[in-house]
Amino acid sequence: MSSPKDHLLPSVAAAGSVSSGVSTDAAPQEATTSLSKISLVIDSLKKEVEAERCVYIKKKMEENRMKLAGITNNNHRFSVARRNLGIINGGKTHNFLTKRQKDAIDMRNGDAISSSQDDGRASVILLGCGIPVENYVPPINLPKVEKIPPYTTWIFLDRNQKMTEDQTVVGRRRIYYDQNGGEALICSDSEEDETVDEEDEKKEFAESEDNIIRSTIEQTGPSDIVYDLLAQRLSRKPCEIKERYEALKCSKPSDADFNMNSFLDKDLETAQDSFNKLFCRRCLAENGCSAWKSMDDESVPCGPHCYLQGTYTREGEFLRKRLKTSSNAHKDYERIDSETIPVHDVNPTNRSPSPNKKKRMRKSVKGGGEETKEFTSSSTKAKLLSKSQSRRKDSFVPTGNQLIPGSNNTKKKNVLAYDQTFGKITDFESWRTLEKCLFKKGLKIFGQNSCLIARNVMGGRKTCTEVYHVLHYHENKVNKLYSQGSNSIDSQNGVDMTKSNENMGTARRRRSNVFHRRSRYRRLKYTWKSAGSHSLRKRISDIKDLHCRQYNPCGCHSVCGDARKLAKFVLGDVIVPKASAEVASALALLLTENVTLICGDGTLGSPGTKGNSYECQNMKLLLKQQQRVLLGRSEVSGWGAFLKNSVAKDEYLGEYTGELISHHEADKRGKIYDLENSSFLFNLNDQYVLDAYRKGDKLKFANHSPDPNCYAKVMMVAGDHRVGIFAKENISAGEELFYDYRYEPDKAPSWAKKPGDCSRKEDATASSSSGRAKKLA
Ligand SMILES: C[S@@+](CC[C@H](N)C(=O)[O-])C[C@H]1O[C@@H](n2cnc3c(N)ncnc32)[C@H](O)[C@@H]1O
Asked: Is residue 384 assigned to a domain?
């Protein structure tokens, strides 16, 4: 559909403000003119819609014709083959009908039923109009059903539809809107649908109708006349049109492009809002993104718009580097059709690391010593990637000759020309907020490797070459971006590098400082062995602009002697021979933050003690020193968790693990789980809930009991809340594990209600609709 502005009629726009009461003499005439103009707009829009529809239908018909042609040709071939067969068989006609089909046809023709059975079993029954039917089979009586049984429909809602507990009827469905206008949720069951009055039903608006409404009102302005006319043309009520327009206004991002554009002006945090809510924070933090693509070979371009492939002209055209063997050796670049490879449609080759590369990666992680096993955190990946990018960093030194074919300028001049060109072409200022945020994230994760940034975080919005140019020709802005918080991205007003050589030099120096410091930080962050060096350790605390958190490794607030051992281990050049992978991760964790060591199970394997009986359980959780748990059929319900070996009272059994999700998300999931009558949600704190449904250990199968043999405890471990399950009493091998889910009495399901709990059933039902039952520690 063409732009609404093309149709904009100035006098019609004025009609938007025309109210129904017009007082001047010229008014009736003006109103008539306005009416006709509005009608014109609507008609032309309708015509456009119709024309588009015609084209669409024609296209569809043509597609169908092509599909059908295949089928009919086949059928035709078969029928010809069959006829030929008849001819071959001496013209004998074959009866291809089954007896039942023939009977039905005969019955219709009023003929007596053909009987090929001459067995004397002529049980002929006369039906209605005297049609004789042989072997009459009485019809099957289907049981009469008054109401169709209830069903449940789940519908994903648009987060812009802000409504509360309201119910909106769409067709015959009843939709419950999420309290927070959330993007998902909803349930409708047909039981209630049945109660919806027929007259309440509203005809849904088609997309074309929406377009007409929106475009007309955008062109003419909203007014009663416009609503009336639209109602007439679309066979609706004016109030419906008005209501629809209001709804369209609120949810204006009706097409994908608009949606994307609206996100582009948000910062990453806001744009990711729902992402953060939906996914487990811990998984994201620990594993990073498994979809990150690394580079197999640093010298191979990452895609058609890799900076190694070529560059952009001042006009924004991509010039591809010519092969050295080209006869046009003096020209280093050739033009490529921007239609063939759109600038923003980079589709980097999906190369996954080769087995050898993977091996190499593992090997390099092992670099810290034999005892340090592989730990695949995002930080590790980043470290590996940053290493590769530093190798790659200066592999392409742009010169004026490369940029401007045939130029005879001196190298210095050419570099300047190059800078000036790209300073303008890759105007970092013009990048959208989200693009800058993504770029910043990429910079943090991958360093200044434009290939990795473009392919992993820019999502095709910026090519590798564009990222490269920003990195190299807007360094001052990049530096600022890196050193400042994401909130200040919009206020970035770095000096344009192209303006002066002097600035360029300063920026270059500044950049190298930042990146130098960053790479040092990375080394500290991920190479645990390096922590043994005092100079490096000092640097950890010297890095002022890193966000520092006071961390203690196990989160326990008491100071035990073993903590000092651990501290010494981490910071004092002591090498512990058999540190496990978990220890290595724990140490990596320590090194990622500014650490205050106050506790730890220094024995790193056998339980540490404080006084006579103190045992730091947090460290056991951190080191995953848990009991073996078996899965089996439960005494009470479904599956249950069983202990393999006997344990003593208060012994740590294991962790209740799961996805770390927000309460908002848990409420949504809880509604589904409640329907299944099986919930793996565990309230962690007022921010997060653990959901073990998809991810969890066997301990998630431990069932509820009011008189349990275990208990759950929320512990602060390495800065995170985690849930440990402990033995409440001595438990012998093979016993099933139970703990008290501690559901709130009014929300507890019947099987979890305590005998003394006098809350009425209705109360429980009422409250469970407003909140899920919460498993508590
Ligand atoms: C965390 S799961 C436990 C594993 C579950 N038995 C299974 O087979 O998946 C919790 C669910 O188990 C069931 N459940 C747990 N304890 C129960 C009990 N004492 N009586 C009845 N059902 C119980 C409930 O359906 C509850 O939602």
From this structure: yes
pLDDT tens track for 119-169:
444 444 444 444 455 555 566 677 676 665 554 444 444 444 433 333 333
Q: What is the pLDDT of residues 339-369, one digit of tens each?
A: 333 333 333 333 333 444 444 333 333 333 3
Claim to verify: residue 511 and residue 552 sit in the same structural domain: no
**Residue owning the nearest CA to atom 24 of ligand 1:** 678
| Interface predicted TM-score (ipTM) of this complex, two decimals | 0.99
| Coil, helix or strand at residue 737 | coil
Give residue 159's domain range. Answer: 152-193
Domain match, 397 and 484 both: yes
Residue identified by tokens 């032309």 is: 44
Testing ligand 1's pocket by substitution, the residue of 672, 673, 690, 704 carrying the most ligand atoms inside 8 A of its CB is: 704
Q: Are residues 635 and 586 in the same domain?
A: no
Closest Cα to atom 22 of ligand 1: 637
CA of 775 to the centre of ligand 1 (A): 11
Q: Is 635 in the pocket of ligand 1 (CB under 6 A)?
A: no
Verify whether ligand 1 is closer than 6 Å to residue 739 (CB atom).
no
Same domain for 596 and 716, yes or no, is: no
Q: Is the CB of 679 under 6 A from ligand 1?
A: yes
Counting atoms of ligand 1 from 1, which one is nearest the CA of 692?
A: 1
Which pair of tokens denotes residue 312?
């952009």
Question: What is the C-alpha to C-alpha distance for residues 738 and 711, in angstroms, rounded to an integer?
Answer: 8
Phi, psi for residue 319 in degrees, rounded to 5: -105, 120
Q: pLDDT tens digit string along 490-522?
A: 333 333 333 333 333 333 333 333 333 333 333
DSSP result, 350-371: -PPPPHHHHHHHHHHHHTT-TT
Q: Whose CA is nearest to atom 3 of ligand 1?
A: 701
What Rg do the C-alpha atoms of the chain give, in angstroms? 37
Same domain, 624 and 551: no
On whether both 508 and 547 belong to a single domain, the answer is no
Question: Per the domain annotation, does 271 fall within a domain?
Answer: no
Q: What is this structure's pTM?
A: 0.34
Same domain assignment for residues 652 and 681: yes
Same domain assignment for residues 521 and 423: yes
**DSSP-based three-state secondary structure for 129:** coil
Let me know if residue 220 belongs to a domain. Answer: no
Q: Whose CA is nearest to atom 18 of ligand 1?
A: 704
- How many other C-beta atoms lie within 10 A of the C-beta of residue 233? 18
Instruction: State the total domains in the chain.
Output: 4
